[in-house]
Specification:
Blueprint lengths: L1 H12 L8 H13 L11 H7 L5 E4 L2 E4 L7 H14 L3 H24 L3 E6 L3 H6 L6 E6 L2 E12 L2 H7 L5 E7 L4 E7 L7 E6 L2 E9 L5 E7 L2 E8 L6 E5 L5 E8 L3 H6 L4 E5 L25 H18 L7 H8 L1
Antiparallel strand pairs: 1-2, 3-4, 3-14, 4-5, 5-6, 6-7, 7-8, 8-9, 9-10, 10-11, 11-12, 12-13, 13-14
Length: 338
């Protein structure tokens, strides 16, 4: 009776979500040998016991006869039971590999819907409160395929704290969500507060895939692009009025290019509404057609989808670092003209 009580309480400690675990089966077999559980609990053990011991007997159960547990529990029988149960359990490594590959494939499909294009145009919306009252708003961008600029293929939406935006301005921390034309998030970029050198992270499904670090220089604009822990590109812009940012590998070969376009004196002087063209050059498998209005960029190799996501994060960082005004020009100019 004392053994039966201990086995009942021990089995209650086990998780009910895994009733067929080897430990549960052993406890149940021991209980059967002591007569503490009903014979119906031993139905799935009869074939194993009859095969290993040759002494299994058929007992009466609900709905007909069912095999019963062996008359005595031996070490050999427990060893056979353990091996039998282990064969039925899935391999953790195989499950982990399958789930990892599935999530990676899912992320790749999401990135493919936006980044498998030769050229992307990113245009920032006008922030009227910033123009007239120097009130910093959340940044909004429209992403277009250069081959069809009238149909947006995605959007960039910033999420940040309103107080941080007014106090820290371009150094504020924020998260920008990159979504497709249907409103589904593809990936996001996260930019923490910075004082000297800015950093921006690209994240897919909440996992960091790449990062862009700005390197300090007195006049040059230098950025290092990483995919995981591996640096795959560097940008070394000469500064001043040069608005072309070329991504190059360690052998100085061109990988991609980001150009900031001139949108007119009104846009450039009074607003933050800049426009950027990301030229990826060669296509990735399954990409969309090229655009005849933009000169094809010769690259040493096509960037992967994850590398393209990091390049898009660089475009957002460039806009915040060098091309975001402090606002408040419009209202004083109107007053002076009156």
């Amino acid at each position: 009776m004392r053994w039966g009580w201990c086995l009942r309480n021990t089995s209650s400690w086990l998780s009910p979500s895994s009733p067929s675990s080897p430990s549960n089966e052993i406890l149940r077999a021991l209980s059967l040998s002591l007569g503490t559980f009903p014979p119906s609990d031993s139905r799935h053990l009869g074939s194993l016991s009859s095969g290993t011991q040759g002494k299994g007997t058929q007992g009466k159960g609900q709905g007909g006869s069912s095999p019963s547990a062996p008359s005595s529990v031996t070490r050999d029988w427990l060893a056979q039971l353990w091996k039998h149960q282990l064969k039925q359990l899935p391999l953790p490594a195989r499950n982990h590999s399958h789930s990892h590959s599935h999530s990676h494939a899912h992320a790749g499909i999401n990135l493919d819907s936006l980044l498998s294009r030769n050229n992307l145009v990113i245009a920032r919306d006008i922030e009227w409160a910033n123009v007239f009252f120097a009130f910093e708003q959340e940044s909004r961008y429209v992403i277009m395929d250069a081959a069809a600029p009238d149909s947006p293929v995605g959007y960039i939406r910033e999420t940040s704290n309103v107080i941080y935006r007014q106090l820290l301005r371009s150094r504020r921390p924020f998260v920008a969500h990159i979504i497709d034309s249907h409103g589904n998030e593809i990936f996001r970029v996260r930019r923490p507060f910075w004082l000297i050198n800015s950093t921006i992270f690209a994240e897919v499904d909440g996992k960091e895939i790449g990062v862009v670090h700005r390197r300090w220089h007195l006049w040059r604009r230098i950025y290092d692009l990483y995919l995981g822990n591996r640096q795959f590109a560097v940008v070394e812009n000469p500064g001043f009025w040069n608005w072309t940012f070329t991504l190059k590998d360690e052998e100085d070969n061109v990988l991609a290019e980001i150009d900031r376009n001139w949108r007119g004196i009104g846009f450039e002087l009074f607003t933050d509404a800049g426009q950027y063209v990301i030229r990826f050059g060669a296509s990735v498998p399954g990409s969309y057609g090229s655009d005849n209005h933009i000169e094809e960029l010769n690259v040493v190799r096509p960037l992967t989808l994850s590398e393209r996501a990091v390049a898009l994060a660089l475009a957002v960082s460039l806009d915040c670092d060098y091309f975001s005004r402090r606002g408040g020009w419009g209202l004083p100019i109107i007053v002076l003209e009156e």
